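#struct-pred
JK: can someone run the complex with flavin-adenine dinucleotide? inputs below
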Amino acid sequence: MQKYDALIVGGGHNGLVTACYLQRSGLKVAVLEKNGWVGGAATSRELTPGFLYSNCSYVCSLFRPEIMRDLELPKHGLQVIAYEGGAVFTRDGDYLASYRDHDSHRREFARYSKRDAEAYERYARDVTRQCRFIQPLLMRTAPDPFSFRPRDISELLYLAKKFGEFSPHEMAETLRFWTMSISDYLDEYFETDVIKAYLALSGIIGTALGPMSPGTAYVLLHHYMGEVDGSVGAWGYARGGMGAVTQALARSFEAAGGVIRTDAEVSKILARGGRTTGVVLANGDEVRADLVVSSADVKRTFLKLVDEDALPGDFVHRVKHFKMRGSSGKVNIALDSLPEFPALPEGSSCMRGDMHFTDSIERMERAYDDWKDGRWSTDPFLDMVIPTTLDPTMASPGKHFMSCFVQYCPPKVEGRDWTDADRDAFAETVISQIASYSPGFRERIVHMEVRTPREIENEVGLTEGNIFQGELTFDQLLFNRPVPGYAQYRSPIHGLYMCGSSTHPGGGVMGAPGRNAAAEILRDLKRTPEQMSKAHDVI
Amino acid sequence: MNAMTKSAAELRRAARDHIRLPRLETPFHDRLMALSEVNDWYNWAGYKAPHSLFDGELEYFAIRSTAALFDISPMVKYRITGADAERYLNRLTLRDVRKLGVNRVHYTAWCDDHGHVLDDGTLFRLGEQEFRLCCQERHLPWLLDSAFGFSVDIREETEEIAGLALQGPTSHAVLRDAGFVGTEKLKPFDIATFPHEDGTVTISRTGFTGDLGYELFVPRAKALSLWDRLWNAGQEHAIRAIGFGALDQARIETGFIVANADFVTAEGALRADRVRMPDEIGLEWLVDPDKPNFNGRRAILDARRNQTLKHILVGLEIEGNIPAEHALVYHRQKHEAGLVTAAIWSPTAKRNIAIASLERPYGSKFTDDLWVEIYAMRELKYQKMMKRAKIVPRPFVKLARRTATPPGLK
Ligand SMILES: Cc1cc2nc3c(=O)[nH]c(=O)nc-3n(C[C@H](O)[C@H](O)[C@H](O)COP(=O)(O)OP(=O)(O)OC[C@H]3O[C@@H](n4cnc5c(N)ncnc54)[C@H](O)[C@@H]3O)c2cc1C
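RT: done, C-alpha cells with the ligand placed:
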C-alpha cells in the first residue's frame, strides 16, 4: 500500500493547481484521475486524426497570471494568445461586430445607434468598476462570518473596507448589479436589440438562468473579469487548446516530483473517527494519506464518495440543495476548410473571434423557456469560435477546428435520460442554425463530437453537466460557496478538503479555487506556502 | 419604398468604412498628408491627426508670430435645436445661456447630479433656437437623457462638420485676403457667417491659443476648398499648418485645461476619488448660482458651504528651465500636495510654467513653500531635482492682440 502526504481526487485544472503548490511546499502528493488523461473540463483531445479539440472549455480568460508565473507554466509550454473581436449575425443578413480597437468598436455600434455607440463607454466603465471590486476577492479565502477568528474578522473587515471605499451611491449600484437581470441592466444603457443580445450572451453562458432572470448581471461579471486584468493576452486561446493549460500544470507538477495516476477512479474517501485516512480506488486499491483534497464537485464528493453517516446532517442537506443544473451542451466540429459567412466582408477579423447567431434578448429568453420545459432549445444560442484561425497547432493548414458552446440543454429530457437519438436531434439544431448563415457548411464537416450534459457528466464528472460545478448565483458565492460555514476549503471531515470550482470563487478555468485551497491546507499544516506569490494588485 | 431613400438596413450595411479605415481621416486629410514631412500622427478620438507636420518648435512659432492652421475636425460636436434649446442648455450647463446672445460663443462646462464635471467645451449660439456644443468626450446618452421634458432635437454631427482653427498675429490678414469681408468687426467670441462657394462658412473669433485667432466650420464637402482658400491667401502671411504638439504648448501658456489630461471626466473615471467639481479644476467662475436650476447646482453649492471641496487647480511657476511634467508637488519638501498635469518651458514668457492639481488645504490655505520633484531622464539616468514652485495666476501669457478690435494685421 502506498502512502502519500496528500491525495488529490481528480486531475482537473484546480486539482492540479493545488497539487503543484502542495508538492512545491515539500509534501509528497499524488493526483488520482479517473480518466485516462488529466484536464477535467480543460482538455484537448484528438478524436479524429489531425484535429485537436478543446472538448469542454475553449477560451482562456480567467486563468490567474499569478498561478502561471508561480508554477512556471510558460516554461512548461503554456502560451495564451489574445484573440480578436467577434460578431453576431442578424436575421436581415447583416451583423454586429466587435473590435479590439476602441473607435472601430464605437463606429460599429453607431451603425445601429449613435446613442448606443456612445453609451458603450459608460457601460464599460460601470462594469469595469464592478470587476475592480470583485477581482481582488478572487484570490482571497472568503471570510467565515460564523467564526470569530481574528483572520475571519480581518477578512470581513477587508470586505467592509472595500465596500467602505464606495460612495453610498456606488454601494447601491453594486447591490443592484449583483441582483439584477442582465436584460434589465442592459436596458439601462442600450436601445438596440442586437447590441443587448451580444452583450448578454457572453454573460449568461453556463447558467441555467435566462437573460431576464435576476442575478444574471453578476454572471456577466464572471466572464468579463479577464478583461480588467491589465496584462496583455488576458483573453485568448490557449495554444494547443485548453488542454495546454492542464498539460503545463501536469508537467510542472511532475517536474517538482509529484505523481499522477490516470485511470484511477476514486470510489470512496475513507473517514474514520472524523478524520480521513485515504481513498479506495475503483479497482479496490487503497491509497493512504492524512490529507485528501477533492477537486470533484461538492455533490460528487460528499454524496457519492463519502459515507453519509460520516457527515453532519445539516451539511448533507445543504450539499443536496446546492444548485448544479446543467444548462449547456457543446458541439466540436472538424472542418476540411474554413466556412464562409457571406454576411461578413472578406477577410473580416470577426472570424478570429467569437460568433453568435442570436440577435435579440427575447430569442435568448425563449430558448430558456424550452429548457424549463425539459427540452433542448429549438432555437439555441451559440458561442462559436474557430481557434485554428489563430492557432496553427490544432489542425493542419487549411483545416479547422470549430467549437460551439450551446445553450440551453437540460440535464434530463422531459424528466427522462438522454438517448443517442436525442443527442443527434440536439446537434441538428446547432448545425442547421450555422448552415443557414453559412452555405455549404455541412459539406465541410469531417467529424463531430456532440456533448450533452449526459456526456459531460459521464466524462468530466460534472454533476448534471453544470460547467461551473455549481451555479454562480449570489446565494452560492463568497462565504456561501458551497455551504455556509464550509467556504474555506475545509470539510466536516478532518483532513478532507475541497479545491474544485464548487468552492469560492467558482467555475471557469481560473485556478483560484485550487490556489486558495492550497493556501488554507498549508496554513493548517503550519507551513508557509512556498512559491505562492501575492495576488496582483488592482490599482 | 421610394428608390431614392435607403432603408435603415441598407444604410447600416453601407456604413462599414471603419473596417477599411479603423482610424478615421479628417475632411482635411489630403492636405495634411501632402504637407506632412515627418509622418508624425497620433490618434485623436479615433481620427488620424498630426502631432507635428514639419517641426514642432517652428510650428509653435507660427502660432505666436504669423498664422497657424490647425485641423479641429475630430472635436466632438452636437447640434442642439428647438423651442426649448436655450432652456435645456441652461439646465444642462453651468453658465447662464440666457445671457449668450445669438452669434456669440461661450466657454462652459457641465456636471452630473453630484456636481462632478462631465466635460468642458464651447457653446456656439447660431440662432435663437440653434446651438452647437463642442467638446472633447462623447455625451450623446447624457444629452438625450437630460432632454426629457424639453422640446429639443439633439444631433451628433462630428463627422459631418469640418473645423479649422486659424490662429496667430497674421490670422486676420489671412482672412481678409481670402475675401472674408467683415471679419475685422468680429470681437472675441463673436460669430458670423460668410459666403463660401455655393454655401457658407461660420467663423468665430475663438481659439485655444490665447492669441489672435478664429475658428471656421463648414460642411464636410466644403472642407478642401476652404483650406485652399485660406492657404492661398496665407502665403504672403507666412501661414503654416501645425500639429497638436505646438497647439498644446500655446494652450498651456494660456492656462487652458484639457479634459482627461488635466482632470478626469466623471463618466470616464473608474476610481471614485478621481472625479472633480468645477471649483476643483479652476472652473468656479463658470458656476452661476443666480440662474435657474442646473445640473449639479445643489451639490456644488453644498460643497462650497460645507467646505468639502478636496482639490484645487493652480498655475505654478517653477525655478529653472526643466519642464516638470507629471511631477509630484510637495509642501515644505516633504508633504505630498498634488500633481503637475501639464508643464512646459514657455518660449514666449521665458518662464518654467505648470498646471497642477493640489489637495486642499495645499493651494488654498497653504500657498507658500511649495516644491516640485522633477525626474529628468538624461542619457538613461534620472536627474532628480527639488525645485521651488510659486502659485501664479493664469494665463501665463497674456497678449493684447488677442482682444484688440479691429484686429491687427501682423
Ligand atoms: C462544455 C464546457 C465549456 C466550458 N467553457 C469554458 C470556457 O470557455 N472558459 C472557461 O474559463 N471555462 C469554461 N468552462 C468551465 C470550466 O471548464 C470549468 O469550470 C473548470 O474546468 C472546472 O475545473 P475544476 O478543476 O474545478 O474541475 P473539473 O475540470 O471538473 O475537474 C474534476 C476532475 O475530477 C475528475 N474526477 C471526478 N470524479 C472523480 C473520481 N471519483 N475519481 C477520480 N477523478 C475524478 C474528473 O474526471 C475531472 O478530471 C466550460 C465547461 C464546460 C463543461
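RT: quick notes.
Residues 272-392 of chain B form a domain with the Elongation Factor Tu (Ef-tu); domain 3 fold (CATH 2.40.30.160).
The pocket of flavin-adenine dinucleotide is lined by residues A 9-15, 32-35, 40-42, 56-59, 61-62, 265-266, 295-296, 300, 305, 330, 405, 456, 460-462, 467-469, 500-501, 507-509 (CB under 6 Å).
JK: thanks, will look after standup
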